[in-house]
Every structure is written in structure tokens, then in C-alpha cells.
Design brief:
Layout (H helix, E strand, L loop, with lengths): L1 H10 L1 H36 L4 E5 L3 H8 L13 H7 L4 E13 L2 E6 L1 H7 L3 E4 L7 E4 L10 E2 L2 E2 L14 E7 L10 E4 H7 L4 H5 L3 H7 L19 H8 L12 H6 L31 E6 L2 H10 L5 E4 L1 H44 L1 H9 L4 H42 L9 H26 L3 H6 L1
Parallel strand pairs: 3-9, 5-8
Antiparallel strand pairs: 1-10, 1-11, 2-3, 2-7, 2-10, 4-8, 5-9, 6-8
Length: 465
């Protein structure tokens, strides 16, 4: 019977190919949705595992996590630099690292931070080592820059019309090992250098004039709309606004040297300078410039909850990235339900089309079936031949659909990783086996319908038709 089935499928190969293709496409859609959604959950959760607590200015919890943990460009409101000094001195904190962003180079975000964050969130260096001078930088595993490369920071990105600091350059001194997070695509530089480039934080983190730190501690740190285009990809614009009033740059208030240090050339940016060989100073004071976010490593779980409660005030916001992601997963779950419904609808349409085609196919083979019955083939043999042909096609289609869905999810995941740096673990789980069994069971039932029609067919009636 098997040889008869195979011979029949070879004779009707074009129709068989179309049936297999329909089943494969419908199955692949459902598999891709399920596997990709699971991979996105796992990948984002693993990326956030390295960061226990994020503190920022009062605002959107989701945006704070997306910007500080996943490095998605967006302007954030600033909180006073005194918050960093307070956290750094808190005995419940293992380390607290500021995060300053807004500049980029070759599409890679430039993140101002401290050595504490590098030591606390990476597994060491693949080559080189930590920055020890103001003009040095380290790069993530996915940044295609060699040691010794020169980095000229750009306000925002090239796509948003950013301006390059041609007079300032960092030098790459290290590359960290892969972390599987967006930080693999980041360029890390001393936060004091980011402040100095933008005319902030000179004289050892905050011993600049009163106007500067008065502005830096202002309760309203929102960026001026006139500066947003130039700083659309970060919060450095907010730094500038927090520390520089327009009248602060009038010629009457500045001498020639001060004007050189804070060059305002009409492009909406405040320029400073860095000392490439200057030593790092990570002892922050209450007069430090405003900050968009601080990443905190509490010493214990209890300390983490106490700190979160303490810094959830009218002026600051403290969040656990995992809790924020859980709420995002709820939204993803709703989207998955919609996509799964679409996939189920397409599978139902394919099943109906298969049933229709199968019935037509059996009807057209009435004479062949009648001849088999006339030559002595039992009813169960006829039933088995028709059922086997259809079920083999369904089985091949489901197998190809699982392979195609997995391949589609891998391609989407790779593209997502290249864009964001988050590694998505695209893999099958036990629940996927359950879905395969359900599809096979449905295929068995649908294949039995035309087979039952052939089983009940009279040989005499079939030969007369």
C-alpha cells in the first residue's frame, strides 16, 4: 500500500506540492509568532538582569528603563547631581553609576559612566582595559572599532542632523567581553568627559560658578524645545539647559577664557573641552551636574526595596527594570493574542481549503477507487490509501512549517540584535511539541473525512459514473 501511495503522490505531484505549501505557510506563521514572542521575553529579561535598580527624575518608568538599560534614544528629564552623591555614600549601595547619553559615533551611542559600572556589569575585557584618563574610551563587543581608534563624538546622530565635535576625540583603550545586552553596541567614556565636553562639571565635578549648579539643581529639568532637534537622541540637551541660562553667555558676564571654554556659536550647543590625559575623579559632590539616570547595585534584596521606596518621591523615581518589563510583557501578550488569532484564522482557512480540495480529489478519482474495490481491495485498504496520501502531505507541511517558522524567527531575531544589541534566544520549548501534536491530530481528522467518503463508495456505482 505504501508503494501505491507514493506512486499516486508522484503522479499528482503538482497538487501535492500546493497542499504542502499551504500547510507549511499557515504553520510557519503560528510558529514564528510563538517562538519570536518567547525569545523577546527571554532576551529582554536577560538584558535587564544586570541592573537591579534604576533611579531617575520623576516621569515615565518605561521610558526610564528603555533609555538607561536598553539605551533607546530619548530625552529624559534630569535630576540633581546631589542624588548621585547621596547614593554613592549610602552604606546600603554596593555601587552607583551615573549614565549620561546624547552623543554618538558611527551609529554607536556614547555613554558617559564610571569604572564601577564597567566592573559591576561585565565579565572582563576581551582586549585592553579600563579607561584611566578623561580622553579614553572602551567599546562593547559588537562595536567594530580597534584599540587605538579615535572617536569624535557627535551630538545626537547623523540622521537627526547632529554636529560632530571635531576638536575633541577619545581613544579606544579596551573592549569588554560580550554581555548579550544593548551595551555590547555602546561606547563607554568617563562621565566627567561628557560633562566637560558640554561645558559642565569643570573644576572637579561641580566647582563651577553658582549659576551652573543652581541651574543643575533646578526642579524643572526639561529640555528647551529649541534644543531638542540637536539632542533628539539623548538627554545632553537637558544637561545644557539645566546648567546654562541664555543670559549666562552674554559677553558682559564672561572673559575671553571663559568664552572659549563655553563656546556658543549660534547652533544651540554649549561647547567645552576635555583634558585627554586628565586623571579620573569619581568622587562626586552635591554640585555635580544634573543626571538623566543612575544605575544602582544594592547590597541586599531588602536594601533594594528600601532604596526604591525612598527614592520614589515627587522629584525622583526608582524602579526595578524587571517589574517594568513585566508590564511591557502584558502588552506583548495582547499583541501575541492578536497575531495568534490571525495565525489561527489563516490555519482554519487553509484547513477548509484542504478539505475542499481533498473532497474534489476523491470525487475525481471515483473510477480509480471503484476499480480498486472491483479487483478485491477491501474498504479499509481504500480508506487507508486515501487517508495516508492526505496525512503524509499534512505531515510534510507541518514539518516544513516548523522549520520555516523557526528560520523566520531567527532572521527577525538577528536583525533585532544588530539594531538593539539584545540577543534573542530563538529556540523551541516543550509547549511547541504540544502545538505540533495538536496540528497533527487536526490533520488526522481532516484527512479522515475524504477517506471516509472513499470507504463508503460502492464499486458498481463508481464504475457506472
Amino acid at each position: 500500500m505504501i508503494s501505491f501511495v507514493l506512486a499516486d503522490l508522484r503522479r499528482l505531484w503538482l497538487g501535492a506540492f500546493v497542499l504542502v505549501l499551504l500547510v507549511a505557510l499557515a504553520t510557519a506563521l503560528g510558529v514564528a509568532v510563538t517562538v519570536q514572542e518567547r525569545a523577546l521575553r527571554l532576551g529582554s529579561a536577560r538584558a535587564a538582569d544586570r541592573f537591579d535598580l534604576v533611579v531617575g527624575a520623576a516621569g515615565s518608568e518605561t521610558q526610564l528603563v528603555l533609555s538607561s538599560v536598553f539605551l533607546q534614544p530619548s530625552p529624559l528629564p534630569l535630576m540633581p547631581g546631589a542624588v548621585l552623591a547621596k547614593l554613592a555614600a549610602d552604606p546600603r549601595v554596593a555601587w552607583a553609576a551615573p549614565v549620561g547619553f546624547g552623543d554618538s559615533f558611527m551609529g554607536y551611542p556614547i555613554i558617559g559612566t564610571t569604572t564601577a559600572l564597567v566592573k559591576g556589569t561585565t565579565a572582563g575585557f576581551a582586549e585592553g582595559g579600563l579607561f584611566v584618563h578623561e580622553g579614553e574610551a572602551i567599546v562593547g563587543a559588537a562595536v567594530h572599532l580597534p584599540l587605538g581608534a579615535e572617536i569624535k563624538p557627535m551630538h545626537g546622530t547623523a540622521e537627526t542632523g547632529g554636529e560632530t565635535h571635531t576638536e575633541i576625540a577619545y581613544r579606544v583603550v579596551g573592549r569588554v567581553k560580550p554581555t548579550g545586552t544593548p551595551w555590547d553596541r555602546a561606547i563607554l567614556v568617563p562621565v566627567q568627559a561628557v560633562w566637560h565636553i558640554h561645558g559642565l562639571g569643570h573644576d572637579d565635578h561641580g566647582d563651577h560658578d553658582d549659576d551652573h549648579h543652581a541651574g543643575g539643581e533646578d526642579g524643572d529639568h526639561a529640555a528647551d524645545a529649541a534644543h531638542l532637534p540637536a539632542h533628539a537622541d539623548g538627554a545632553v540637551a537637558g544637561h545644557d539647559e539645566a546648567g546654562h541660562d541664555a543670559d549666562h553667555h552674554e559677553a558682559g558676564e564672561h572673559g575671553a577664557d571663559d568664552h572659549d571654554e563655553h563656546d556658543h556659536d549660534g547652533d544651540g550647543h554649549h561647547h567645552g573641552h576635555i583634558d585627554p590625559d586628565g586623571a579620573l575623579n569619581e568622587a562626586f559632590t552635591d554640585q555635580a551636574p544634573g543626571l538623566p539616570a543612575i544605575l544602582v547595585k544594592p547590597k541586599t534584596i531588602a536594601d533594594a526595596y528600601r532604596l526604591r521606596q525612598e527614592y520614589r518621591t515627587a522629584g525622583t523615581l526608582a524602579v526595578f527594570p524587571g517589574e517594568v518589563l513585566t508590564r511591557l510583557y502584558g502588552t506583548l501578550g495582547d499583541a501575541k493574542m492578536v497575531l495568534s488569532a490571525v495565525a489561527a484564522g489563516s490555519q482554519a482557512l487553509v484547513a477548509a481549503a484542504l478539505l475542499l480540495v481533498s473532497v474534489i480529489h476523491v470525487t475525481q478519482r471515483r473510477r480509480q477507487i471503484g476499480a480498486l474495490r472491483a479487483f478485491g481491495a477491501p474498504r479499509l485498504a481504500v480508506f487507508g490509501i486515501v487517508w495516508s496520501e492526505l496525512f503524509v502531505l499534512v505531515l510534510i507541511g507541518i514539518a516544513l512549517g516548523f522549520g520555516g517558522g523557526y528560520l523566520a524567527a531567527r532572521l527577525i531575531g538577528d536583525a533585532f540584535t544588530r539594531q538593539t544589541g539584545v540577543i534573542l534566544p530563538v529556540e523551541f520549548a516543550a509547549e511547541d511539541g504540544g502545538m505540533a501534536l495538536i496540528l497533527l491530530a487536526i490533520g488526522m481528522v481532516f484527512a479522515a473525512i475524504p477517506a471516509l467518503m472513499a470507504y463508503r463508495q460502492s464499486p458498481a456505482q463508481a464504475l457506472r459514473s
